[in-house]
Amino acid sequence: MSMDLRNLAGRPVIIGGGIAGLMTALHLAPEPVVLLSRSPLGADASSVWAQGGLAASVGDDGDPALHLADTLAAGDGLCDADTARRIVYAAPAAIEDLARLGVRFDRTPEGTLRLGLEAAHSRRRIVHADGDGSGREIMRALVSAVRSTPSIVVVEGVEARRLAVEDGRVTGVLASCSTSPVFLATGRVILATGGIGGLFDDTTNPLGNCGQGLALAARAGAIFADLEFIQFHPTALDGPGRPMPLISEAVRGEGATIVDETGRRFLDGVRGAELAPRDIVARAVWRHLAAGHRVFLDVREKPGATFAQLFPTIASACGKAGIDPAHDLIPIRPAQHYHMGGVAVDLVGRTSIPGLWACGEVASTGLHGANRLASNSLTEAVVCARWVAESIAASPDGSGKRAMAPDLPAADQGPVRPLLSRALGVTRDGEGLEGAARALLPLLQRHDAASGPATVGLMIVIAALLRRESRGAHFRTDFPHHATVARRSHLTLDAAIAVARELASSPALESIP
What we know:
single chain, alpha/beta, FAD/NAD(P)-binding domain, Flavocytochrome C3, Chain A, domain 1, Methane Monooxygenase Hydroxylase, Chain G, domain 1, five-stranded parallel β-sheet, four-stranded mixed β-sheet, 15 helices, about 15% strand
């Protein structure tokens, strides 16, 4: 590493180079800030792959109250209504912020924003950039803005391994690079590390995203919320490639239908059909596959001849798989896509640990509830990044001086992936969750490369085991109905380990509190 990070002591440290991290850094300017990224900016972030765009009430018939209502309905009783209200009402201004930073949004010939429709939205309110390349275009503009902002020091090829915590507050970050371990003394750390796709066999996310930020926060003692809620996208391109190419919900918004090998639209009896909430569509597709059918997306009539023009990224992925969407059905299956749960934060991103903030997919604000409304995730990241930055700027530094020896190698999710893929799929049951918990506990305790992914996996499994109901994206075949009262879940690593140890000593599910 060419720079001496000791000279950067006391500056806020952002861990993660996706949209949430870049926007937080830009909003902190001109305050000096350090941004850590495992790889070159934009090379390994889920943000780059986002197709759907941002949900915001910016059209002639746009109404934030309707956006809020759709968000709460999709969240199935678990959204934090006040948080959701503030975020969706701030969304139009966030679109303006991105446009000022150079994002080239799709527009009509008249110059107004071109808006798309996605599942569970009652209006066209999805703002796209470069068709189905929204994430790529947004990241292009943000990376350019960050690299041209003198107050932002970007440190690439460095991975955070531990958070230093003294007297209950964060005092620094221990990181590893190609040459030696480094310690950044800081009392202001922002997790913007993305999701958990790499923990699953079938995912639409980068395979390197395996919950690193969740592991950092867990070992520091943070409180987590709603970890059991994992969204499976119903229309991933079914083929051998991993990660699986995503086929955006916007395709169905333009009229594409879901059919089986006989040509039957088996979603006809489902309220909303192809545009029902994602959890409903994903389970319907999953069950049809489990019954021995094949499932396809049919775009031949709608959007028809305009498909490749509207969705060039998806058309390219289909072409690489030998599929011509103009004439062929596109094989699909559900794949892990987004984690609604995460580090519990308040509206300005503060976690339960002083000096630690979180923003983006790694955080749980309460916006998404039990099932994220399509295209609300990028909106959340952009909106909340401003509030996180304002909170950090108003907080004094509380950095420490004591470095720690690196005691963990880079994460290896290989031993964990098959366990979570079986136990935490589109449908779950107590027996499978118990088995996964028993297998994950010793992996966590080994303190080797699998320990971090096992830590994250165990916490999610225990959260899913303790939620004895089906709600949103969490569906238990042994508890298929809603509980009478909807409650968000909260968990710490110590509490998850205690439940796992109790489970290991007693095989009876009834013994778990």
